[in-house]
Amino acid sequence: MIETSGVIEKEQGNGFYLVTLEQPEGHQCLCRAAGKLTKFRIKLLAGDKVLVEISPYDLSRGRITYRERNAGGNRPTTNKNNPKRNNK
Q1: What is the DSSP letter of 39?
Q2: Rounded to two decimals, what is the model's pTM?
């Protein structure tokens, strides 16, 4: 297996994602979320940086094995234990 990183461009539907890879530069492949990503229902959105495994026999298909944290930019986070929020 060839393991490389890439960025999700868009969701194609039916669980497939179009991913632009960093190595080789600009190569696009159709990927599916694999293993624990589907088991734990990890959300994948356009703009997320991911690790992709590609078979050397078919470079146009792959599977997403990992989603990097904070890769999608500024997403809203909730912090319920923030003491500054409770002070009035």
Answers
A1: H
A2: 0.76
Cα gap 87→1, rounded to integer Å: 54
Respond yes or no on whether the N-terminal peptide bond of residue 56 is cis (omega within 30° of 0): no
Alpha carbon separation from 46 to 11, 73, 84 (Å, rounded): 7, 11, 33
Residues near 60 by beta carbon (within 8 Å), at least 6 away in sequence: 29, 30
Q: What span, in angstroms and rounded, lies between the C-alpha atoms of 40 and 44?
A: 12
Beta strand spans in the chain (E)? 2-13, 16-21, 28-33, 49-55, 58-67
Domain limits, the chain: 2-72
23-62, pLDDT tens digit by residue?
989 999 999 999 899 999 999 999 999 999 999 999 999 9
| CATH homologous superfamily for the domain 2-72 | Nucleic acid-binding proteins (2.40.50.140)
